Amino acid sequence: MRRPMLALLAAGLIAAGAGEAARAAETPAPPQEHWSFQGIFGTFDRAALRRGFQVYKEICSNCHSMDLLHYRNLEAIGFSEQEVRNIAAAVQVTDGPNDAGDMFERPGRPSDPFKAPFPNANAARAANNGALPPDLSLIVKARAGGADYVHAILTGFKDPPPGFKMFPGMNYNEYFPGHQIAMPPPLSDGAVTYADGTKATVDQMARDVATFLAWASEPNLEERHYTGVKTVLFLIVLTALMYGVKRKVWAEVH
Question: What is the pTM assigned to this prediction?
Answer without folding.
Answer: 0.81
